[in-house]
Design goal:
Elements: H1 5-15, H2 34-48, H3 53-64, H4 77-110, H5 116-127
Helix pairs in contact: 1-2, 2-3
Amino acid sequence: MLSDPALEQRARNLSQHLRCLVCRNESIDESNAGLARDLRLLVRERLEAGDSDAQVMEFVVTRYGEYVLLKPDITGANWLLWASGPLTLLFAAGVVVSFSRRRAKERRTDATALSAEETKALKKILNN
């Protein structure tokens, strides 16, 4: 813990937005993993060195990648990742609709009128 309460509060706020790389969906503030402890110390060191919150986050992201953010920005390549779920759902819905229409069309095609030969054969069968 830092001796300055304001710096400590900033460190806790930043730690709540950084993902523990061991625990996956836990922040480094909540995690008991050794790597999370090291990241908490790194954040505090950067704050003591005079970095702003944005500079600390930029430093950590540059060092560990955007995966370290619990809520990554929706920009650039991340936009594609965020959009891939809904886009896949829309594609699947399109495939289902296309398949359903094709099946319905096949059913209508199968129910066409009988040819002259088929009509004679049917009458012969029904008359016997």
